[in-house]
Amino acid sequence: MTPHPLVTVKKTDFDAAVAIATKGTHCGMCRIDFLGTGLCPSGKKHGYLAYWPQGRMELIKHLADGTIQPTEALIEIAESCSLCGLCDKQCNFATQLRPEKVAQAIKDYVATLDTKDFLKIPKDAIVTGLQKIVGEKWATNDPVIIASYVRSIIAPNVPLDFYVVMPETTEQVSQIVQFANTNNLPFLPRSGGTALSVASPTVLANATNLEHGIIIDLLRMKKLEIHTESSTAVVGAGVTSFELQKEAYKHHLRANVAEAGAHVCANIATTGIVTTWGNSYGCFADNFIDLQLVDNDGVIKTHHDLEISNPYAVDNGFANISLSPPYILTETTVKLYPIFDDEEAVMVPFDNVEDALDAVIELGRRGVGLSLAVLSYKYLAEFICPTRQIATDFEDVCKNYLKLRYVLDVVCKKEDKKIVEDLLGYTIDESMLRTLILGSPKLASLKNSEFMKILSEETDPLRAIFAGPMKKHLEQGLEATPANIAKVYDEDLQDFFKKIYAKPEFTDVVWLHAFRILPSRLMRQRMAMGPGGAIWAGDKAHILKWIKMFSDVGDKHRLEHALGFISPLDNGKFIYIEYDYFYDHNNPEAAGRISKTLLETTEQSLVLGGIFTLINYLFKGIYRKEHVLYPLPKGLTVEEDTMFKDVLHSLLGDF
Amino acid sequence: MVKFLSDEWIEYGKEYIRRNLDPARDLGNLTTSVHGVIEHVPPTDSTTTFYLELQNGQLSDFILRVGATIPEKTPVFVITGTYGAYRDIFEGKVGTAMAILKNRIKLKGSKVEALKIIKQLDGLIDALRKVTDEFEEGPFPS
Q: Which residues of chain B have a CB within 8 Å of the CB of A633?
């Protein structure tokens, strides 16, 4: 390939674009219209990940390090981007990145090449066979397109020996699976890809990703029907949580969904949609009334078929580990729930986890709250702060001045709010929450201020600021307006974000809980979820021991860590805990420490016993919670622990 | 080196295991048996089954038969997968435990018992890998 002289001229931009791409988080928020701007026209039209901002960010890294050569597909990928700037707005809201510069750099790069520089990728019999099933456009073996799937279903540093196929129907999925089996190729479905990307820098990459073979990208399976007469929705495998919720809300109904970018079917299959709404809406098989799936032989099965054996039962023992879905969930009919006119979000701050835990368990047992959880200061800061730096300062203010370590977070009806207030004395109401969202930059800037020093010397700074005489001063002092929060964004985006924050939903805490667009911000500082799970709510000492274990292992491996959330399940009988670790995902040494942490906390959770840790319920989301959660597994014996370690070594080698 | 699923593979495999694997050290004096059912064997898209038996860590039986079972044998475990899945295992692209846990191969029998002997199973596969480097290459007509 002869480099064009312009390559040198443009090199700085290209390198800058690669630097942006390296920070890419694979959060997938560029594939949902969460800001009401419309979707990336290129991605919407062409489907494959390479045509979306997320995919372009991945593939430019491969062009830069020479693991792929330009192909004819790269021309179309470059040309299909109109530089409309939507991706900058979406990505900035979530992670403050500017992917349009990446698209521009790819265009510039392509412009420097001669026609002869682009490889023509010949079709082989596999691509031809797949194209016969889905149509010519929707199956490919082009390495440029395949490279865009690295880190979200392909482990880094493996040969790009893959095909990508995008079916539109269950029948096509069935044919693809049969075709893969006949041709002795492994396959794996891909939905949002975020969970796979979280595993990607760690020792779990090979365990969860596809080694080679056929990637079945389910994005085109967009069937979405709301049935108001039964309060249900029929959802195809390509539909995201955000898209389902948006349709449900049009009918004054709500779905129990995962993070905005997660695909509903994949989330059901993987972990059974465990959310802060789970105590009232349910979890695992509570979430749906019917399923359609394709098994590993390509056979289509539906739950309403009366001839099938019990589809809801499963062995939850740790030996029944599944690292890949044993079927492809292609369509599900989920339950929808009424939205009440008097719903409100309230929070109660705590300075210690013990009291916060008591509160969430008590309210969970009483059935208070539609959504009910304890969040750590870390979650609160990451969710509401528009940039990572502001979140860091906000965390500092919470921890060191306000003594706000945890918040009880409740979305409830009016009568439930009264119970919360009666039990806990006071709440942070919606007006104050709105103030905290819009005023988060100002509050973060008060770090080290005299005001904060005075406040921290109060006997109960939380009560003083949220229920005492200082509340009024805080509300006035935070200058909480859309115009002020917009100032933290790049100058050319400030007008846009002023309008975004002026939209009622962006400061409506109930809406934010339902649509779950804010968790994507946790990926700015790469998060790795510890192997959380469910534990019996009645044994507080055991719960605290489990939380301490996560904390101790995090300290041991020198990781920033914090409790994510605690939420009750099954009428308050169980609580679900997520504990998170944070690290630089581009630092292999840090990723190594994360790997050790994830494996160690998994093993210790199993040894502690009385805990359903991730490994017990991964890919068991379609089964009844009564089978998944009952009975509580006992702690591993010494012999079982040795066996478990042997299995880990067999799976993952030395770590 | 011989072709995977050939008669020579069985003979060389037996010889290699008996000569190189120590019944106590490598195979834990294990007594167990496995049917390995291999589907979609090219080029005829047929099914082949091997039966492997250990008595106190000694290889006591290792045979191959066309079809989905060997009726006269009653194995402790049945491991079923496509030719491609087995090829990946014998080429070292994926470990046996990983193949089970990723649902690339199906295990009939106690998963707990299978995982207990995973070390020894890995040793056997590793031994058979050393005599096999010839596989049918695809793609194959559907």
A: none
